[in-house]
Write the structure tokens for this entry.
Amino acid sequence: MTLIMSCLLMCAFSAPFIYHGFQNREKNNKLIAHLTELAQSKSANPKEIETWRYQYALGIDLYQNVLVYVRHGIDSFSSCLDLGDYGKVNLIKNFQNPTTTAQTQKLPEFVALELVPKVASKEVVLLEIYDAEHYSDLLGETVLAEKWFELIKNQLK
């Protein structure tokens, strides 16, 4: 009887975590599906794909020279960019001002990739990686931004 009761309680305790995990996996799959669908509109097939926070996705097709970006949420945004139209990529990191003298480490407030077009009449594209307005913690976004900065920079050469 005690064994049955403890199994039931353990199942009841773990059920919300398992359900939440399935929801997150479904969100991630939808995000990747949206990204690949967007890429296929330019006949691209991104081999390098990265998702984070179940709301952002970035993919690149090195052979077709196409970069795909998707952001879901309140201010959804998606873009499929031909990298041949861009001459330069910049890594933008805005940091918070330290509020106390004891705070020694600067925390990023905003991290993004900026794609500068070759033609001056075209608009600069800003791909948000992290915004402190939406999230209070970092989950490796600075490392992710640096990785993609190098990847895009090498592709633009």
Summary: The first strand starts at residue 48 and ends at 52. The mean pLDDT is 87.
